[in-house]
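step: validate -> pass
step: tokenize input -> pass
step: predict -> running
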Amino acid sequence: MNETLTKTRTTELDDPSDSVPRIGRAMTRMRMMTGRRLIGRLAIQSVAPDLELSHLDVLDAVRRAQENGEVTVGAIAEMLRIDPSRASRVVSDMVGRNVLRREASQADARRIVVVMTSLGKNLLAEIRAQKLAFVSEVVRDWPQEEIDTFSLLFEKFIGGYEAIFLSRDKDTPG
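step: predict -> pass
step: emit ->
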């Protein structure tokens, strides 16, 4: 199978006139690989073997949401596009595993917010470390100039992708 992937990748690179389709094919290959969630599985194995991959999604939602202030279960549900009752169950499970904790809001004591524990922060740090190690290994033999150029172009591509995604996703059911 790896031979087939390598052969396909080499053949695709032979025709420089089809850059946009090549990007699309590369995105499909990347989606298939990221769907296996190797980095997340490695981080869980290192820090908290009893967690599930869905816990990482919630943890990442908490990380992103806390940039805008306090995090509620409703905010997590909205970010993950899941039912609030499902989000509540997963958060409860993570509270029970000491990855998250609930506490009273500083802005409104009647409201409960979700915060990361030190275990949650350690897990996020391990995910980041695994990701950086993985990317470093991929570009290990690249000249520094190519790494620098790719990083800027990839960030630009993802920014554009994200902008289109967000504008279209809000009106798309599911």
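step: describe -> The mean pLDDT is 87.
step: cleanup -> pass
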